[in-house]
Protein backbone atom coordinates (compact mmCIF):
# COMPACT_ATOMS: atom_id res chain seq x y z
CA UNK A 1 0.00 0.00 0.00
CA UNK A 2 1.08 3.60 -0.43
CA UNK A 3 2.67 5.72 2.27
CA UNK A 4 0.13 8.48 1.77
CA UNK A 5 0.65 10.12 5.16
CA UNK A 6 4.38 10.69 4.90
CA UNK A 7 5.68 14.23 4.64
CA UNK A 8 8.50 14.96 2.22
CA UNK A 9 10.61 17.77 0.80
CA UNK A 10 9.56 16.76 -2.68
CA UNK A 11 6.69 18.42 -4.53
CA UNK A 12 3.49 17.89 -2.59
CA UNK A 13 -0.12 17.92 -3.60
CA UNK A 14 -2.78 20.26 -2.32
CA UNK A 15 -3.29 18.05 0.72
CA UNK A 16 0.37 18.11 1.67
CA UNK A 17 0.79 14.38 1.04
CA UNK A 18 3.29 12.60 -1.15
CA UNK A 19 3.35 8.83 -1.15
CA UNK A 20 3.84 5.74 -3.22
CA UNK A 21 0.86 3.82 -4.49
CA UNK A 22 -0.05 0.54 -6.16
CA UNK A 23 -2.28 0.27 -9.18
CA UNK A 24 -4.87 -1.38 -6.97
CA UNK A 25 -4.99 1.70 -4.80
CA UNK A 26 -5.11 4.12 -7.72
CA UNK A 27 -7.99 2.20 -9.28
CA UNK A 28 -10.17 2.83 -6.24
CA UNK A 29 -10.41 6.53 -7.11
CA UNK A 30 -12.68 6.60 -10.16
CA UNK A 31 -15.89 8.27 -9.02
CA UNK A 32 -16.97 11.89 -9.41
CA UNK A 33 -15.40 13.96 -6.63
CA UNK A 34 -12.65 11.39 -6.05
CA UNK A 35 -10.54 10.85 -9.14
CA UNK A 36 -6.88 10.01 -9.51
CA UNK A 37 -4.89 9.53 -12.70
CA UNK A 38 -1.35 8.39 -13.44
CA UNK A 39 0.89 10.24 -15.90
CA UNK A 40 4.49 9.13 -16.43
CA UNK A 41 4.31 7.04 -13.21
CA UNK A 42 3.27 10.08 -11.15
CA UNK A 43 -0.06 10.00 -9.33
CA UNK A 44 -2.31 13.08 -9.49
CA UNK A 45 -5.47 13.88 -7.57
CA UNK A 46 -7.63 15.63 -10.17
CA UNK A 47 -10.87 15.52 -8.19
CA UNK A 48 -11.33 19.30 -8.16
CA UNK A 49 -9.25 20.20 -11.19
CA UNK A 50 -11.64 18.42 -13.57
CA UNK A 51 -14.10 21.30 -13.18
CA UNK A 52 -11.51 23.76 -14.52
CA UNK A 53 -9.93 21.54 -17.16
CA UNK A 54 -9.93 23.41 -20.51
CA UNK A 55 -10.70 20.18 -22.35
CA UNK A 56 -13.76 19.53 -20.22
CA UNK A 57 -14.30 17.57 -17.02
CA UNK A 58 -15.46 14.36 -18.68
CA UNK A 59 -12.30 13.63 -20.62
CA UNK A 60 -10.24 13.39 -17.42
CA UNK A 61 -12.99 11.41 -15.75
CA UNK A 62 -12.76 8.86 -18.55
CA UNK A 63 -9.20 8.12 -17.40
CA UNK A 64 -9.84 8.14 -13.65
CA UNK A 65 -8.00 5.27 -11.97
CA UNK A 66 -5.95 4.62 -15.11
CA UNK A 67 -2.64 5.44 -16.74
CA UNK A 68 -3.35 8.55 -18.81
CA UNK A 69 0.18 9.07 -20.11
CA UNK A 70 -0.58 8.35 -23.76
CA UNK A 71 -3.72 10.49 -23.79
CA UNK A 72 -1.88 13.27 -21.93
CA UNK A 73 0.86 13.26 -24.58
CA UNK A 74 -1.58 13.05 -27.46
CA UNK A 75 -3.75 16.02 -26.48
CA UNK A 76 -1.22 18.58 -25.17
CA UNK A 77 1.15 20.24 -27.67
CA UNK A 78 3.17 21.97 -24.91
CA UNK A 79 3.80 19.25 -22.32
CA UNK A 80 6.21 21.32 -20.24
CA UNK A 81 3.63 24.07 -19.75
CA UNK A 82 0.92 21.60 -18.75
CA UNK A 83 3.22 19.86 -16.27
CA UNK A 84 3.62 23.18 -14.41
CA UNK A 85 -0.15 23.38 -13.93
CA UNK A 86 -0.18 19.78 -12.75
CA UNK A 87 2.39 20.22 -9.96
CA UNK A 88 -0.14 21.25 -7.28
CA UNK A 89 -2.15 18.12 -8.07
CA UNK A 90 0.76 15.72 -7.55
CA UNK A 91 0.25 13.40 -4.56
CA UNK A 92 2.82 10.70 -5.21
CA UNK A 93 4.09 8.10 -7.60
CA UNK A 94 3.76 4.44 -8.35
CA UNK A 95 5.69 2.03 -6.18
CA UNK A 96 8.95 0.91 -7.78
CA UNK A 97 7.65 -2.65 -8.06
CA UNK A 98 4.57 -1.54 -10.05
CA UNK A 99 4.63 -1.67 -13.89
CA UNK A 100 4.32 1.60 -15.78
CA UNK A 101 1.28 0.32 -17.69
CA UNK A 102 -1.97 -0.71 -16.06
CA UNK A 103 -4.36 -3.50 -17.07
CA UNK A 104 -1.65 -5.75 -18.53
CA UNK A 105 -1.00 -3.52 -21.53
CA UNK A 106 1.83 -4.51 -23.85
CA UNK A 107 4.76 -2.48 -22.50
CA UNK A 108 6.88 -3.06 -25.62
CA UNK A 109 4.12 -1.77 -27.91
CA UNK A 110 3.59 1.28 -25.72
CA UNK A 111 7.30 2.05 -25.74
CA UNK A 112 7.62 1.60 -29.51
CA UNK A 113 4.65 3.89 -30.09
CA UNK A 114 6.26 6.52 -27.88
CA UNK A 115 9.46 6.20 -29.92
CA UNK A 116 7.45 6.55 -33.14
CA UNK A 117 5.89 9.76 -31.89
CA UNK A 118 9.32 11.15 -31.00
CA UNK A 119 10.58 10.21 -34.47
CA UNK A 120 7.68 11.97 -36.17
CA UNK A 121 8.23 15.05 -34.00
CA UNK A 122 11.91 15.09 -35.01
CA UNK A 123 10.84 14.82 -38.67
CA UNK A 124 8.71 17.95 -38.28
CA UNK A 125 5.36 16.21 -38.71
CA UNK A 126 3.81 18.22 -35.87
CA UNK A 127 4.73 21.60 -37.35
CA UNK A 128 2.08 23.77 -38.97
CA UNK A 129 2.23 25.32 -42.41
CA UNK A 130 0.33 28.61 -41.93
CA UNK A 131 0.00 29.09 -45.70
CA UNK A 132 -2.00 25.85 -45.90
CA UNK A 133 -4.51 27.15 -43.35
CA UNK A 134 -4.79 30.53 -45.03
CA UNK A 135 -5.39 28.98 -48.44
CA UNK A 136 -8.01 26.70 -46.97
CA UNK A 137 -9.79 29.62 -45.34
CA UNK A 138 -9.63 31.52 -48.63
CA UNK A 139 -11.12 28.50 -50.41
CA UNK A 140 -14.15 28.56 -48.12
CA UNK A 141 -14.67 32.31 -48.24
CA UNK A 142 -14.44 32.20 -52.04
CA UNK A 143 -17.25 29.64 -52.24
CA UNK A 144 -19.45 31.79 -50.00
CA UNK A 145 -18.69 34.90 -52.03
CA UNK A 146 -19.49 33.13 -55.32
CA UNK A 147 -22.82 31.92 -53.92
CA UNK A 148 -23.82 35.45 -52.93
CA UNK A 149 -22.68 36.91 -56.26
CA UNK A 150 -24.73 34.34 -58.19
CA UNK A 151 -27.88 35.51 -56.45
CA UNK A 152 -26.89 39.13 -56.94
CA UNK A 153 -26.24 38.69 -60.66
CA UNK A 154 -28.65 35.97 -61.79
CA UNK A 155 -31.56 36.20 -59.38
CA UNK A 156 -33.50 33.65 -57.39
CA UNK A 157 -34.62 31.17 -60.02
CA UNK A 158 -34.79 27.50 -59.08
CA UNK A 159 -31.69 26.42 -61.00
CA UNK A 160 -29.58 29.29 -59.72
CA UNK A 161 -30.84 28.76 -56.16
CA UNK A 162 -29.93 25.07 -56.36
CA UNK A 163 -26.38 25.98 -57.41
CA UNK A 164 -26.16 28.53 -54.61
CA UNK A 165 -27.36 25.94 -52.07
CA UNK A 166 -24.74 23.43 -53.23
CA UNK A 167 -21.97 26.03 -52.97
CA UNK A 168 -23.08 27.09 -49.48
CA UNK A 169 -23.40 23.48 -48.30
CA UNK A 170 -19.95 22.71 -49.72
CA UNK A 171 -18.44 25.68 -47.88
CA UNK A 172 -20.14 24.58 -44.66
CA UNK A 173 -18.97 21.00 -45.11
CA UNK A 174 -15.38 22.01 -45.87
CA UNK A 175 -15.44 24.13 -42.73
CA UNK A 176 -16.74 21.13 -40.83
CA UNK A 177 -14.14 18.68 -42.07
CA UNK A 178 -11.40 21.19 -41.36
CA UNK A 179 -12.54 21.59 -37.76
CA UNK A 180 -12.95 17.84 -37.29
CA UNK A 181 -9.36 17.24 -38.24
CA UNK A 182 -7.65 20.08 -36.35
CA UNK A 183 -8.11 20.52 -32.63
CA UNK A 184 -5.05 21.67 -30.76
CA UNK A 185 -2.63 23.59 -32.93
CA UNK A 186 -2.27 27.36 -32.85
CA UNK A 187 -3.21 27.92 -36.49
CA UNK A 188 -6.20 25.62 -36.27
CA UNK A 189 -7.37 27.09 -32.95
CA UNK A 190 -7.54 30.48 -34.68
CA UNK A 191 -9.42 28.84 -37.53
CA UNK A 192 -11.91 27.25 -35.11
CA UNK A 193 -12.56 30.62 -33.44
CA UNK A 194 -12.96 32.40 -36.78
CA UNK A 195 -15.08 29.75 -38.48
CA UNK A 196 -17.00 27.49 -36.05
CA UNK A 197 -19.01 30.06 -34.14
CA UNK A 198 -19.68 32.25 -37.19
CA UNK A 199 -20.99 29.10 -38.92
CA UNK A 200 -23.73 28.74 -36.31
CA UNK A 201 -21.97 26.29 -33.97
CA UNK A 202 -20.22 26.54 -30.61
CA UNK A 203 -16.46 26.00 -30.49
CA UNK A 204 -16.61 25.12 -26.80
CA UNK A 205 -19.42 22.62 -27.30
CA UNK A 206 -17.69 20.96 -30.23
CA UNK A 207 -14.25 20.79 -28.62
CA UNK A 208 -15.51 19.10 -25.46
CA UNK A 209 -17.58 16.64 -27.44
CA UNK A 210 -14.86 15.80 -29.93
CA UNK A 211 -12.12 15.51 -27.29
CA UNK A 212 -14.18 12.82 -25.55
CA UNK A 213 -14.58 10.97 -28.82
CA UNK A 214 -10.83 10.95 -29.35
CA UNK A 215 -10.06 9.96 -25.77
CA UNK A 216 -12.24 6.83 -25.84
CA UNK A 217 -13.50 6.20 -29.39
CA UNK A 218 -16.43 3.81 -29.77
CA UNK A 219 -16.58 3.19 -26.02
CA UNK A 220 -20.09 3.20 -24.60
CA UNK A 221 -20.75 5.83 -21.90
CA UNK A 222 -17.50 7.62 -22.79
CA UNK A 223 -17.71 8.45 -26.49
CA UNK A 224 -20.70 10.75 -27.12
CA UNK A 225 -20.66 9.78 -30.81
CA UNK A 226 -22.03 6.30 -30.00
CA UNK A 227 -24.87 7.73 -27.95
CA UNK A 228 -27.65 6.96 -30.42
CA UNK A 229 -30.52 8.19 -28.22
CA UNK A 230 -32.20 4.78 -28.57
CA UNK A 231 -32.76 5.44 -32.29
CA UNK A 232 -30.14 2.86 -33.31
CA UNK A 233 -28.29 -0.06 -31.78
CA UNK A 234 -24.66 -0.36 -32.90
CA UNK A 235 -21.84 -2.85 -32.66
CA UNK A 236 -22.27 -6.42 -31.47
CA UNK A 237 -22.76 -5.93 -27.73
CA UNK A 238 -25.46 -3.26 -27.48
CA UNK A 239 -27.96 -4.99 -29.81
CA UNK A 240 -27.85 -8.18 -27.75
CA UNK A 241 -28.24 -6.21 -24.51
CA UNK A 242 -31.30 -4.40 -25.84
CA UNK A 243 -32.75 -7.62 -27.20
CA UNK A 244 -32.30 -9.56 -23.97
CA UNK A 245 -33.90 -6.72 -22.00
CA UNK A 246 -36.76 -6.56 -24.54
CA UNK A 247 -36.02 -2.92 -25.32
CA UNK A 248 -37.78 -1.84 -28.53
CA UNK A 249 -37.97 1.92 -28.93
CA UNK A 250 -37.89 1.38 -32.69
CA UNK A 251 -37.86 -1.70 -34.94
CA UNK A 252 -34.08 -2.01 -34.91
CA UNK A 253 -34.08 -4.86 -37.41
CA UNK A 254 -35.08 -2.20 -39.96
CA UNK A 255 -32.60 0.47 -38.79
CA UNK A 256 -30.46 0.10 -41.92
CA UNK A 257 -33.53 1.32 -43.84
CA UNK A 258 -34.83 4.15 -41.65
CA UNK A 259 -31.24 5.37 -41.20
CA UNK A 260 -31.65 7.22 -44.50
CA UNK A 261 -34.61 9.17 -43.11
CA UNK A 262 -33.40 9.72 -39.53
CA UNK A 263 -29.59 9.91 -39.53
CA UNK A 264 -28.17 11.96 -42.43
CA UNK A 265 -31.07 14.41 -42.92
CA UNK A 266 -31.84 15.26 -39.28
CA UNK A 267 -28.59 15.24 -37.29
CA UNK A 268 -27.47 18.83 -37.95
CA UNK A 269 -30.76 20.62 -38.75
CA UNK A 270 -32.58 19.16 -35.74
CA UNK A 271 -30.47 17.46 -33.07
CA UNK A 272 -27.25 19.47 -33.29
CA UNK A 273 -29.09 22.79 -33.65
CA UNK A 274 -31.01 22.17 -30.44
CA UNK A 275 -28.04 20.72 -28.56
CA UNK A 276 -25.71 23.58 -29.52
CA UNK A 277 -27.94 26.35 -28.18
CA UNK A 278 -28.97 24.33 -25.13
CA UNK A 279 -25.30 23.74 -24.27
CA UNK A 280 -24.26 27.36 -24.74
CA UNK A 281 -27.07 28.67 -22.52
CA UNK A 282 -26.70 25.93 -19.91
CA UNK A 283 -22.93 26.45 -19.54
CA UNK A 284 -22.92 30.20 -20.02
CA UNK A 285 -20.85 30.21 -23.23
CA UNK A 286 -21.90 33.76 -24.00
CA UNK A 287 -19.03 34.58 -26.36
CA UNK A 288 -19.84 31.49 -28.43
CA UNK A 289 -23.51 32.46 -28.35
CA UNK A 290 -22.76 35.95 -29.61
CA UNK A 291 -20.66 34.61 -32.49
CA UNK A 292 -23.35 32.08 -33.39
CA UNK A 293 -26.02 34.75 -33.46
CA UNK A 294 -23.75 36.83 -35.67
CA UNK A 295 -23.82 34.00 -38.22
CA UNK A 296 -27.62 34.05 -38.40
CA UNK A 297 -27.66 37.85 -38.60
CA UNK A 298 -25.10 37.81 -41.41
CA UNK A 299 -26.95 35.12 -43.33
CA UNK A 300 -30.36 36.75 -43.15
CA UNK A 301 -29.01 40.23 -43.92
CA UNK A 302 -27.45 38.79 -47.07
CA UNK A 303 -30.28 36.60 -48.32
CA UNK A 304 -33.61 38.03 -47.10
CA UNK A 305 -33.16 40.99 -49.45
CA UNK A 306 -33.31 38.51 -52.34
CA UNK A 307 -35.61 35.75 -51.08
CA UNK A 308 -37.64 37.36 -48.33
CA UNK A 309 -37.80 35.90 -44.82
CA UNK A 310 -39.80 32.75 -45.60
CA UNK A 311 -37.74 31.52 -48.55
CA UNK A 312 -34.48 32.55 -46.86
CA UNK A 313 -35.44 30.24 -43.97
CA UNK A 314 -36.23 27.46 -46.44
CA UNK A 315 -32.86 27.94 -48.17
CA UNK A 316 -31.04 27.95 -44.83
CA UNK A 317 -32.59 24.65 -43.75
CA UNK A 318 -32.01 23.07 -47.15
CA UNK A 319 -28.31 23.94 -46.90
CA UNK A 320 -28.22 22.44 -43.39
CA UNK A 321 -29.99 19.35 -44.76
CA UNK A 322 -27.30 18.80 -47.40
CA UNK A 323 -24.48 19.58 -44.98
CA UNK A 324 -25.91 17.04 -42.53
CA UNK A 325 -25.74 14.30 -45.17
CA UNK A 326 -22.06 15.02 -45.76
CA UNK A 327 -21.32 15.16 -42.04
CA UNK A 328 -22.97 11.84 -41.17
CA UNK A 329 -21.56 9.80 -44.05
CA UNK A 330 -18.01 11.15 -43.78
CA UNK A 331 -17.72 11.03 -39.99
CA UNK A 332 -19.37 7.64 -39.53
CA UNK A 333 -17.68 5.73 -42.37
CA UNK A 334 -14.59 5.15 -40.22
CA UNK A 335 -16.34 4.37 -36.92
CA UNK A 336 -19.81 2.82 -37.09
CA UNK A 337 -18.60 -0.32 -38.94
CA UNK A 338 -15.76 -0.77 -36.42
CA UNK A 339 -15.75 -2.37 -32.98
CA UNK A 340 -18.10 -0.64 -30.52
CA UNK A 341 -18.01 -1.91 -26.95
CA UNK A 342 -17.62 -1.02 -23.29
CA UNK A 343 -14.28 -0.02 -21.78
CA UNK A 344 -11.51 -2.58 -22.39
CA UNK A 345 -8.57 -0.55 -21.02
CA UNK A 346 -6.41 -1.03 -24.11
CA UNK A 347 -3.23 0.84 -24.90
CA UNK A 348 -3.61 3.98 -27.02
CA UNK A 349 -2.59 2.40 -30.34
CA UNK A 350 -4.76 -0.70 -30.00
CA UNK A 351 -7.76 1.27 -28.74
CA UNK A 352 -7.65 3.72 -31.65
CA UNK A 353 -7.02 1.08 -34.33
CA UNK A 354 -9.90 -1.16 -33.27
CA UNK A 355 -12.27 1.83 -33.50
CA UNK A 356 -11.04 3.50 -36.70
CA UNK A 357 -10.13 2.75 -40.29
CA UNK A 358 -8.68 4.70 -43.20
CA UNK A 359 -10.06 5.45 -46.65
CA UNK A 360 -7.85 5.14 -49.72
CA UNK A 361 -5.85 8.25 -50.51
CA UNK A 362 -6.68 10.17 -53.67
CA UNK A 363 -6.95 13.88 -54.52
CA UNK A 364 -10.75 13.65 -54.42
CA UNK A 365 -10.89 11.67 -51.16
CA UNK A 366 -8.44 14.09 -49.54
CA UNK A 367 -10.56 17.09 -50.54
CA UNK A 368 -13.98 15.53 -50.00
CA UNK A 369 -13.19 14.22 -46.53
CA UNK A 370 -10.83 16.99 -45.47
CA UNK A 371 -8.22 14.26 -44.86
CA UNK A 372 -10.64 12.34 -42.66
CA UNK A 373 -9.57 9.48 -44.92
CA UNK A 374 -6.49 9.39 -42.64
CA UNK A 375 -8.68 8.73 -39.64
CA UNK A 376 -6.17 6.36 -37.98
CA UNK A 377 -3.34 8.90 -37.98
CA UNK A 378 -5.74 11.64 -36.88
CA UNK A 379 -6.81 9.59 -33.88
CA UNK A 380 -3.31 8.52 -32.92
CA UNK A 381 -1.92 12.06 -33.25
CA UNK A 382 -4.81 14.53 -32.74
CA UNK A 383 -2.47 17.54 -32.60
CA UNK A 384 -0.67 16.70 -35.84
CA UNK A 385 -1.57 19.10 -38.69
CA UNK A 386 -3.64 17.26 -41.25
CA UNK A 387 -1.32 18.08 -44.12
CA UNK A 388 1.24 15.72 -42.57
CA UNK A 389 -0.90 12.60 -42.03
CA UNK A 390 0.32 11.02 -45.25
CA UNK A 391 3.88 11.21 -43.92
CA UNK A 392 2.99 9.40 -40.69
CA UNK A 393 0.85 6.68 -42.29
CA UNK A 394 3.65 4.33 -43.51
CA UNK A 395 5.32 4.41 -40.09
CA UNK A 396 2.06 3.64 -38.30
CA UNK A 397 1.33 0.76 -40.67
CA UNK A 398 4.81 -0.72 -40.05
CA UNK A 399 4.31 -0.55 -36.27
CA UNK A 400 0.90 -2.23 -36.58
CA UNK A 401 2.42 -5.01 -38.72
CA UNK A 402 5.11 -5.58 -36.10
CA UNK A 403 2.59 -6.19 -33.32
CA UNK A 404 -0.19 -7.77 -35.34
CA UNK A 405 -2.57 -4.83 -34.89
CA UNK A 406 -5.03 -4.67 -37.79
CA UNK A 407 -4.64 -1.53 -39.94
CA UNK A 408 -7.76 -1.26 -42.09
CA UNK A 409 -8.06 0.76 -45.29
CA UNK A 410 -11.16 0.83 -47.51
CA UNK A 411 -12.47 2.43 -50.67
CA UNK A 412 -14.80 5.39 -50.18
CA UNK A 413 -17.76 3.48 -51.59
CA UNK A 414 -16.92 0.42 -49.49
CA UNK A 415 -16.75 2.55 -46.35
CA UNK A 416 -20.17 4.10 -47.05
CA UNK A 417 -21.67 0.69 -47.78
CA UNK A 418 -20.20 -0.71 -44.57
CA UNK A 419 -22.25 1.77 -42.52
CA UNK A 420 -25.44 0.20 -43.84
CA UNK A 421 -24.10 -3.34 -43.60
CA UNK A 422 -23.08 -2.86 -39.97
CA UNK A 423 -26.45 -1.36 -39.04
CA UNK A 424 -28.21 -4.29 -40.73
CA UNK A 425 -26.03 -6.81 -38.88
CA UNK A 426 -26.60 -5.08 -35.53
CA UNK A 427 -30.33 -5.05 -36.21
CA UNK A 428 -30.28 -8.79 -36.87
CA UNK A 429 -28.43 -9.42 -33.60
CA UNK A 430 -31.05 -7.38 -31.76
CA UNK A 431 -33.94 -9.27 -33.35
CA UNK A 432 -32.40 -12.67 -32.57
CA UNK A 433 -31.93 -11.72 -28.93
CA UNK A 434 -35.33 -10.07 -28.71
CA UNK A 435 -37.18 -13.13 -30.04
CA UNK A 436 -35.12 -15.61 -28.05
CA UNK A 437 -37.18 -16.42 -24.96
Automatic annotation (TrEMBL):
The chain crosses the membrane at residues 131-152, 158-180, 258-276, 296-319. GO terms for cellular component: endomembrane system; membrane. SUPFAM superfamilies: Cytochrome b5-like heme/steroid binding domain. It is a multi-pass membrane protein. Residues 18-95 form the Cytochrome b5 heme-binding domain. The keyword Transmembrane helix applies. Its main location: membrane. Pathway: Lipid metabolism; polyunsaturated fatty acid biosynthesis. GO terms for molecular function: oxidoreductase activity, acting on paired donors, with oxidation of a pair of donors resulting in the reduction of molecular oxygen to two molecules of water. Keywords: Electron transport, Fatty acid biosynthesis, Fatty acid metabolism, Lipid biosynthesis, Lipid metabolism, Membrane, Oxidoreductase, Transmembrane, Transmembrane helix, Transport. It comes from the Eukaryota. It is found in: Endomembrane system. InterPro entries: Cyt_B5-like_heme/steroid-bd (IPR001199), Cyt_B5-like_heme/steroid_sf (IPR036400), FA_desaturase_dom (IPR005804), Fatty_acid_desaturase (IPR012171). One of its GO terms (biological process) is unsaturated fatty acid biosynthetic process. Belongs to the fatty acid desaturase type 1 family. This is Fatty acid desaturase 2. It comes from Sinocyclocheilus anshuiensis.
Amino acid sequence: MGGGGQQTDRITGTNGRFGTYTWEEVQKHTKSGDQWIVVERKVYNVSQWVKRHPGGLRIIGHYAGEDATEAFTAFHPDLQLVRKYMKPLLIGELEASEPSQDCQKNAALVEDFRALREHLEAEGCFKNQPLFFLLHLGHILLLEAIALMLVWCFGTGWINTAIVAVLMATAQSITGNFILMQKSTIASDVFVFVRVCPQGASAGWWNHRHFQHHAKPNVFKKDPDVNMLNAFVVGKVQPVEYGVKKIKHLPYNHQHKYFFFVGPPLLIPVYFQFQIFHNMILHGLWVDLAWCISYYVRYFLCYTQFYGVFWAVILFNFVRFMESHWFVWVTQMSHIPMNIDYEKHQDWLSMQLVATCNIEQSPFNDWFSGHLNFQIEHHLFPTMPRHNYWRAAPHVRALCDKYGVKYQEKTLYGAFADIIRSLEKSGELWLDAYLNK
